[in-house]
Structure formats: C-alpha cells, structure tokens
Amino acid sequence: MAQVGAPAPLGGSGGLDPADPWYASLGRGPALAIASSAVLLAWLATRDRSARLALALAPGVVLAAFCSPGSLRLLDDLTGAGSILWRMVWVLPVPAAVGLALTSPALLPRGAARSALLGALPAAALALLLVKGTPVWSAENGVSVGRPSWDVAEGDLAAAERLRSLSRPGDVVMAPEPVGGALAIIDIDVRAVNPRDRYVYDRRKKSFYATERLLLSRGAADGVAPEEMPALADALGVLDVDAACIRPVLAPGAVGRVLAESGFESAGADEQCVYYRLPR
Q: Are residues 28 and 70 in the same domain?
C-alpha cells in the first residue's frame, strides 16, 4: 500500500548515497517503519537457532555492504553497475520478516494476552498503512492507471515487431538503442546488438565487442562519419548481423551504403526505419 520510491532529499531509486538503497527499497512513513522494524527484529520471532542467526546477520551485512558511506560508489567504480546497486536491499526477506514480526506473540505462553496480540498486531499494522500509507497506484506516487501496455514508445515497439518478423531465431539485428531495447522486451530469440547503452558501456571484455555494438546502434540512430564506414562494415561482420533498422534519413547516406556494400537488401520502410536483411 505504501509509496516505494525515495524522492529528494533522501535519494532517488538510482542514488548512490548511503541512505538511498534503504529508502528506495523500503519506502517512507508507515511502510518504512513497519518494514525496517521487522527486518531488524525478526530474529526475535523464531526459536530456530540457524534462522535466528541468519535473520540477525542479514540486515547487518546489507547495511555494512550497501548502506555505509562510500560503499556503493566504490562498487560502482569496480563494476560499473551503479544503476542497479540500490536494488541490493531486495536481498532482505522483508515479507517474511514482517510476517514473523506480526506473528511473534505466538512465542508467548498460551493465554488471553497472546490471543489478543496475535489479532491486534496485524490489525494495527494494516490500519496504519491504510490511514497513512500511499497506494502504489496513487497519483501521489507518480503513477497513472491505464490499460496494460508495453513500457516503450509505440514507434519503437512497432519497429521492433517489424524487425522480429524479418528475423529468425538466433539472428542478431542492428537498430537504434530504443528499438533494440523494445526488441529485447518482446523477444528473447532475436537479439539486438545494443538493447541498452549503459549496460554495454559497463562490459569491458574484448570478447563482448562493446565498441562495435555502440557503433552499430549509434550508426542506426544518428549515422556515421565517412571515415567510420570501414569500422561499421567490420562491426557488421564481427557481430554477424542478419538484419538492420536505420532511421529513414540515413538510408541514402553512409550507413545505407555500408549495408548495401555488405550484402544487405532493402526489406521495406516505415516512419520509424528503413529495414534491411541479408539474403537467406
């Protein structure tokens, strides 16, 4: 029921400051109070020694590794995974911890007090969330409710669908990054050379051909300079590209010429792209 995102000044969902992962994952207000209390105290709600140890150590490890000053920035420098590091708090078993905390009176001796607490604690937590929490579907939470749809631009989705229709399972396609991202969402058998820039930038292994991937997606979206044409042709071969989608304005220029010279044939066009395909 409660707001999950963490707006300023205490950090956003992608922040790398110490408090950001905690607020971004556990929310604010009643949600934060209930979740944090449960996570930190759930070890008291079980008699099993192994479970008690795990539940006591887990939040300490997460706080030390991901919420201590400078830790996320260091991990970002080492891995390049800054855009997802805030999600590391997700490893905490928050639902289980909340359930344990709310049923903890079951550890008390049988009696009227235990029975009363077993009903009162969950009811109080639910009432607090209902009164003070923000529903995840609320406009106050930055959400608008509508018909289910793909979380991508319609034009990019249409181009991705067209590319998929031109391709076979296992094919690799050249496309602007937004189209590649849409293709990665709707299909796992046809692969874009670059579905998301920031993940490609973070891959430093030579065998991943990050430079070639970025050149192909940039070329499909914005074109290349004449001196980059040989590198573009080489990238098509290195990554075994089978189909391509380039912005229409680029078809008469260097990118269109490289594709034609590399054996690609025109496979139609629309407002989003001119499409190419290697002969089968």
A: yes
Per residue, the 3-state secondary structure of the chain, as one string, reads CCCCCCCCCCCCCCCCCCCHHHHHHHCCHHHHHHHHHHHHHHHHHCCCHHHHHHHHHHHHHHHHHHCCCCHHHHHHHHHCCCCCHHHHHHHCCHHHHHHHHHCHHHHCCCCHHHHHHHHHHHHHHHHHHHHHCCCCCCHHHCCCCCCCCCCCCHHHHHHHHHHHHHCCCCCEEECCHHHHHHHHHHCCCCEECCCCHHHHHCCCCHHHCHHHHHHHHHHHHHCCCHHHHHHHHHHHHHCCEEEEEECHHHCCCHHHHHHHHCCCEEEEECCCCEEEECCC
User: What's the predicted TM-score (pTM) here?
Assistant: 0.64
What pLDDT, in 10s, does the model give residues 80-119? 777 788 888 888 889 999 999 898 888 878 888 888 888 8
Q: How confident is the model at residue 227 (pLDDT cuts 50, 70, 90)?
A: very high
Q: What is the pLDDT of residues 179-216, one digit of tens each?
A: 999 999 999 999 999 998 877 876 666 778 999 999 99
Answer whether residue 8 shows pLDDT above 50: no
Domain of 197, CATH number, reads: 3.40.50
- Among the candidates 110, 141, 172, a domain finishes at 141
Residue 30: domain span: 20-141
Task: Give the chain's domain count.
Answer: 2
